[in-house]
Design goal:
It is a single chain. This protein is an alpha/beta fold. The chain has three domains: about 5-90, Winged helix-like DNA-binding domain superfamily/Winged helix DNA-binding domain (Arc Repressor Mutant, subunit A), CATH 1.10.10.10; about 90-160 and about 260-290, Periplasmic binding protein-like II (D-Maltodextrin-Binding Protein, domain 2, 3-Layer(aba) Sandwich), CATH 3.40.190.10; about 160-250, 3-Layer(aba) Sandwich (D-Maltodextrin-Binding Protein, domain 2). It contains eleven helices and twelve strands. The protein has helices spanning about 5-20, 20-30, 30-45, 60-90, 100-115, 170, 180-185, 195-200, 220-225, 240-245, 275-290; strands at about 50-55, 55-60, 90-95, 120-125, 140-145, 155-160, 160-165, 185-190, 215, 230-235, 250, 260-265. A hairpin with a 2-residue loop joins strand 1 (about 50-55) and strand 2 (about 55-60). It starts with 5 loop residues before the first helix and ends with a helix.
Length: about 290
Amino acid sequence: MKLPPLESLRFFEVTARRLSVRLAAQELNVTAGAVSQQVRKLENYLGRSLFDRLPRGLALTSAGDEYYTACQEALSVIARATGKAKIDAQRILLVSCTPSFASQWLVPRLQDFMRSHPKVDVHVSTTNRMVDMLSEGVHFAVRHGHGSYPGLQSDVLVDDDLVAVCSPRLIAPRRVATAKDVEAANLLHDEHRGDWRLWLESAGMDPLQAERGVVLVDSNAAIECALAGNGIALVRQPLARREIDARRLVIVKAPPLRTRVAYHLVYRREVVDEPRLRSFRDWLVAKAGE
């Protein structure tokens, strides 16, 4: 598809609508010479005159009138599409987090926000890498760390307490899992393999036991294996809250391993100047505090 010079087309539309080079120049905030130059450029491209130059102004030729009508229709379509795209963009709220955090914590709670904010379209982008929030258009990111992110604001969402969990089927008919069960069962490791060593030390057990077991791709997979009765997983307690509350998983009787890190909601300071984005931040922080 070969298009005419788009800048010349813009000058032509204003000139044809005003039928005056001087008034077109005022509207476009350029000189009259610049308007005349762009109009001639379009006429040369088309190989025909679009205006009759009269002593007191301009008049469209028959070809110019036909072309102006077509341009108005095309520009109207573009204007409507642009307006719709801007409205759609204003609805979108982009959150970046890991797949595990999305499936275990964020997504199950999002329905509550969407019911109360139907005009906000929340998009969840899952990745294990640290995104560049400005260049990638991300409004909020959930990051796992100490909470210090230069140039960004952060709010604590979820503490990082670690508990060992298993399916009730693994210890049936007993209802309580103990350290002896940990010694006898498969250990299910996620990508943070060193966590089991820390938990075992905290529980007064041999940390060398951390060398055994199955290594899985992430905490989602570890939880699924634990739910299936295939071993004992070490999970961040808030992220497995639904399964624990429903007793699909039971916690091994031992103090949780408390760490110095947490999940933080991270964002640029100016993001919360926009009401719809601020309402999401406020809702998410409040939901994390429940």
